[in-house]
């Protein structure tokens, strides 16, 4: 089993930056892919960033490309999502998710591709 805890969410002004964190514990040695998702009010959960453990490849949808960056601190089993130039539409609960599979293409954005989820951290962007 793997446990995930997200942190760092807060209220920020439009145009500002924020880094949120995901800390993992447990059987993390069989994790191959990491994703960040978000879910805004009355919206479906949306993929915003992916990180492939082998090789460190990163993946982003067009909605956040160039503004969001996913990274890891492998020595601490932690992953981060750096968000720049935040907009009001980025307001959401942000979730970290881990997969025991190496993800490619459209599988990155499918919630069923992930085995473990955190409880989420709220990010609110004021306009």
Task: Tell me what you see in this structure.
The protein is mostly beta strands. The protein has strands spanning 2-7, 11-13, 18-26, 33-39, 46-52, 58-59, 68-73, 78-83, 92-99, 116-117, 121-126. The chain has no helices and 11 strands. A hairpin with a 4-residue loop joins strand 7 and strand 8.
Structural class: mainly beta
Mean pLDDT over the residues: 95
Q: What does the radius of gyration come to?
A: 13 Å
- Beta-strand percentage range: over 45%
Please report the distance between the alpha carbons of the first and last residues. Answer: 40 Å
- Give the SSE order as H and E letters: EEEEEEEEEEE
Largest beta-sheet characterization: 7 strands, mixed
- What characteristic shape results from the CA principal axes? globular
Task: Summarize the amount of helix as a percent range.
Answer: under 10%
The helix tally amounts to 0
User: How many β-strand runs?
Assistant: 11
**Low-pLDDT windows of residues:** none
């Amino acid at each position: 089993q793997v446990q995930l805890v997200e942190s760092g969410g807060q209220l920020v002004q439009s145009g500002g930056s924020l880094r949120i964190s995901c800390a993992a514990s447990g059987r993390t040695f069989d994790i191959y892919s990491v994703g960040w998702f978000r879910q805004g009010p009355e919206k479906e959960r949306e993929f915003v960033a992916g990180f492939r453990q082998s090789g460190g490849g990163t993946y982003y949808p067009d909605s956040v490309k160039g503004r969001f960056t996913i990274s890891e601190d492998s020595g601490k089993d932690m992953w981060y999502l750096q968000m720049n130039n935040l907009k009001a539409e980025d307001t959401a609960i942000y979730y970290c998710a881990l997969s025991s599979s190496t993800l490619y293409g459209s599988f990155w954005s499918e919630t069923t591709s992930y085995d473990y989820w955190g409880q989420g951290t709220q990010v609110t962007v004021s306009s």
